[in-house]
From TrEMBL, chain A:
Residues 36-169 form the MPN domain. This is Eukaryotic translation initiation factor 3 subunit H. HAMAP family: eIF3h (MF_03007). Residues 278-289 have a biased composition (Basic and acidic residues). It comes from Zostera marina. InterPro entries: eIF3h (IPR027524), eIF3h_C (IPR045810), JAMM/MPN+_dom (IPR000555), JAMM_MPN+_peptidase_M67A (IPR050242), MPN (IPR037518). The keyword Calcium does not apply. One of its GO terms (cellular component) is eukaryotic 48S preinitiation complex. The lineage of its organism: Eukaryota, Viridiplantae, Streptophyta, Embryophyta, Tracheophyta.
UniProtKB/TrEMBL annotation, chain B:
HAMAP family: eIF3f (MF_03005). Belongs to the eIF-3 subunit F family. Keywords: Cytoplasm, Initiation factor, Protein biosynthesis. The lineage of its organism: Eukaryota, Viridiplantae, Streptophyta, Embryophyta, Tracheophyta. This is Eukaryotic translation initiation factor 3 subunit F. The keyword Protein biosynthesis applies. It comes from Zostera marina. Component of the eukaryotic translation initiation factor 3 (eIF-3) complex, which is involved in protein synthesis of a specialized repertoire of mRNAs and, together with other initiation factors, stimulates binding of mRNA and methionyl-tRNAi to the 40S ribosome. The eIF-3 complex specifically targets and initiates translation of a subset of mRNAs involved in cell proliferation.
Amino acid sequence: MGKYSKEPENPTKMPARSFLQAVATADVKVSPLRVVRMEGVAILKIIKHCKDFAPTLVTGQLLGLDVGGVLEVTNCFPFPIREEDDEVETDGANYQLEMMRCLREVNVDNNTVGWYQSTLLGSFQTVELIETFMNYQENIRRCVCIIYDPSKSNQGVLALKALKLSDSFMSLYRTNNFIGEKLREKNLTWVDIFEEVPITVSNSSLVSAFMTKLESESPVTQSDFDRLELSTKPFVERNMEFLIDCMDDLTMEQQKFQYHYRNVARQQTQQQAWLQKRRTENMSRKASGEEPLPEEDPLNPIFKPLPEPSRLDSFLITNQVSNFCNQINGVAGQSLCRLYVTKALQDN
Amino acid sequence: MAQTKVEILQFASSATSVNARVHPVVLFNICDCYVRRPDQSDRVIGTLLGSVSSDGTVEIQNSYAVPHSESSDQVALDIEYHQNMYLSHQKVNPKEVIVGWYSTGLGVSGGSALIHEFYSREVTNPVHLTVDTGFTNADAGIKAYVSVNLSLGERTLAAQFNEIPLDLRMAEAERVGFDLLKMIKVEKIPNDLEAMESSIARLNVLIDDVYSYVNAVVEGEIAPDNNIGRSIADALAAVPVISAPAFDKLFNDRLQDNALLVYLSSMARTQLSIAERLNTAAQVL
């Protein structure tokens, strides 16, 4: 897919394009994904699967329809927990096919639109996620990853997120160019890797009727209790631990870059010294009437360009740090609310 | 009394004291399958998965539909499909086993006994769940049954379906939020602070309710109810008595803890943007 955007080398050659090419380029202009519309049944299934196995991280497949700018997620099915075994790999593929076949028989939408996965405190920004996404993207033009965080749901929050990779990031990832220059050229920063797609929820009228009938009359729900729970200590502590780890990682990454730049600087002074030497040598050769030696020597190891380390890792870590910061801010805000509520109660 | 000659009409005494608990995902799944059923059929049948806890409660945690064809006097269930699907589900969660089957429609119908017999071979004493998707009596009829064999001596004459208590409390669904699951369309999932706001608003309404109730009782407008009175007293007693200075100290400590958290996280964020700048600046060598 990445090749569609290749510019025709010569504008006069344009009419010679084959019909297939024309179709292919027209195909690229799809309307961007605006909204993910999830059905209640899919949400409940995801939550059930993620929760049953927490804290083990699990994944599953999303089924639905791609309707213009809206991606409908109408159903899903869980994947078995993967083991590091080659045999299991094919087993997993078989399972997937079997499940799709079975679901099609009972008229469930038989179209993969992405996958879901659980996460721990929102630490999902990993290279694996990007790799999986690229894999899916190869087969499905518009796909999405739903992230659910079971640890956050105990705080009374429905931590459901729909993510996709931004187009500019994907094109960069395909060419595997994560050096500073390219990033500046594309004006890509760590904020631009993931795009969050808003989620809307829809339910069939039948479900809606049942839920209206069955909803208990009690004005308080479980999530209210969860939200008003005063103790947030374990959650905050875990969050801070994660944040500290990430900060350590980030420092490591930065040291890598410093090391790299120091090496580059050292190489440049070496090159300068070599050039200086060559020039004085040439000067003396010229004086004695000999041919001057070339001012470049590609075989000399000091002219070998040093590979710049990829910035992808540091970008991802930055994303995680920012995510933890947001979470901590959110929790702190919530507990401030609760504190003032208790104060009001105590004052009365 | 010629005891040896008399054949007693008896119910096989199976454990009839069971009750069942349905998880909301099962209900949603059944409704979804019903909406997507094939044109020619007017009900869906499927397998219920779950576990039986030690006190005899059947936890119905998962379900899948099984294609079937039905004519006036016979029901054909796609057994191969049922088994394939069961194997697939087992791969994901081996703890969930077959506990029974479901069907849409009101109550038990004629073919039910046949299907029930099939499931009896899969699991002892299966639960039969009926979901009245037609809202026959203008009511969301969801019922669970177990079957009891009515036998004369060795011969089984009939199967009687006994209704068992069904627990439909849905703590899981409450966690997600009824608002999300009840509406046909919801535009946005509330974020944490918005959810907090609505929770506090609800708490406020509750306190107001209690307040006006107590007032009304004091004024003599409503007959006092001892149980409600006790509950209110319990709730009030649950608020710990802390002296004002102690509470102030506690409050301020917590406040400062939180402020520190916010400070740390903004510091980390500032660090990020500085690092970002430095990284890009360092390239201009």
